[in-house]
Amino acid sequence: MLEEPPILRIRRGFPRPTAAQIEAFRGVPTGFVCDAMNGAGSLDTAIAPIGAATTSGPVVGTAVVADNGPAEILATMAALSLVQEGDILLSAVHGYQGTSACGDLILGMMKNNGVTAFVTDGPMRDVEGIEEVGLPAWCTGLNPNSPYSKGPGAVGDAAVIGGQRVASGDIIVADRSGVVVIPHAKINETIKALEAVKAAEAAFEAKVKGGAKTFFDLDAMVAEGKAIWID
Known about the structure:
α2 crosses α6 (187-209) and α4 packs parallel to α5. The strands form 2 sheets. Strands 1, 2, 3, 4, 5, 6, 7, 10 and 11 form a 9-stranded mixed sheet that branches. A two-stranded antiparallel sheet has the order 8-9. It has 7 helices and 11 strands. The chain has one domain: Glucose Oxidase, domain 1 (3-Layer(bba) Sandwich). The mean pLDDT is 94. The protein is α/β, with parallel strands linked by helices. Substrate binds at residues 103-106, 125.
């Protein structure tokens, strides 16, 4: 007879980014990070800021993934025993919208553990309490229905959240524009590309502030045969 499997799988030994790698993304807007990864890396636009995240600047931290599954919260609860100060806890509920993925009390426990932010592909509840806790969070909306804590669930591994595979040990950068995942294996190359992005953005910003109004000289493009007037 097949034995009942454990209701929780917990991976503690995932590779973590260094403090210097985390610091390289401190204060960097999500748009810059996406540009450094060839224009990609953001979670689905349905995952939006709530509470303190609507007014705070960019946050950055190490991803700790709690793969709960639909209508579940067991893995998120267990992750509270695994997170370290500065981590960002991500709850995967496989996009399920029928119950909340987290409320203000668990969010408060995350803050007590030094967690930097919370991200989920499901709704949250207790919006007044979320605002009072003051921990930046990103979710798909609000739903007061209660989740279950029966499992199964997994902590410290990987899950698909908002259309992106997120693994524990990746770097997360989040701001009012969205949430971006930097895979652990691509951290250093993204940091290197980010320097060029910052320089290009600064140069372009200077042009705009200097009065620039257009991208192209259309007359020159017509003369070169790259464009044609049709009127």
